[in-house]
Design a protein that fits this description.
It is a single chain. The protein is of the alpha+beta class and about 160 residues long. It has a domain at about 65-160: 2-Layer Sandwich (60s Ribosomal Protein L30, Chain: A), CATH 3.30.1330. It is about 40% helix and about 15% strand. The protein has a four-stranded mixed sheet with strand order 1-4-2-3. Strand 2, helix 4 and strand 3 form a beta-alpha-beta unit. The longest helix has 21 residues, at about 100-120. It is globular.
């Protein structure tokens, strides 16, 4: 009987811990409650603004660091964002898919990040506002060993600082 009672108390405690109501201790309004209209505010010029309203990545073909027409169009939006927020700096991360050696993919990621940086500078963004880093295949966006996943990992990502 005691064991059954303890199990019921433990189950109630676990369910209480899984509650999705965050309003306690936050002034009575949750992030998605009526006070915010169901939307989370995005600070203009922030990384969240960049991701939501501009798009933070461009993609590359297999074993390439050249920019496609689609990538150039996307990077044009990056240029407009950076011109609108002149105090923002941008780190351009270069990535590769899992194929190839670690060293090769780090070099490929660097070439991709530099291709993006060179494009942004050519469009009038000050190079002092841009930094590049290569992660090679070390930080995949998608896990899997097929073209479906690899194409998501062949990318450059902009991170607003």
């Amino acid at each position: 009987m005691k064991m059954r009672y303890l199990c019921m108390v433990a189950a109630v405690a676990l369910l209480g811990a899984c509650s999705t109501d965050d309003s306690a201790g936050k002034g009575g309004a949750s992030a998605s409650g009526p006070a915010s209209g169901g939307a989370v505010a995005v600070t203009p010029g922030s990384q969240a603004d960049f991701v939501k309203n501009v798009g933070d990545r461009v993609f590359f073909d297999f074993d390439k660091a050249s920019l496609s027409t689609e990538s150039r169009d996307q990077l044009g939006k990056w240029v407009a964002f950076l011109k609108k927020y002149p105090s923002d700096q941008l780190v351009v991360e270069g990535h590769a898919d899992e194929r190839g050696t670690r060293e090769y993919n780090l070099a490929l990621g660097e070439r991709r990040a530099n291709a993006v940086k060179d494009f942004l500078v050519a469009q009038g963004v000050q190079s002092s506002r841009l930094k590049t880093i290569s992660y090679g295949k070390e930080r995949p966006a998608a896990l899997g060993s097929s073209e479906e996943f690899w194409k998501l990992n062949r990318r450059a990502v902009g991170v607003v600082q």
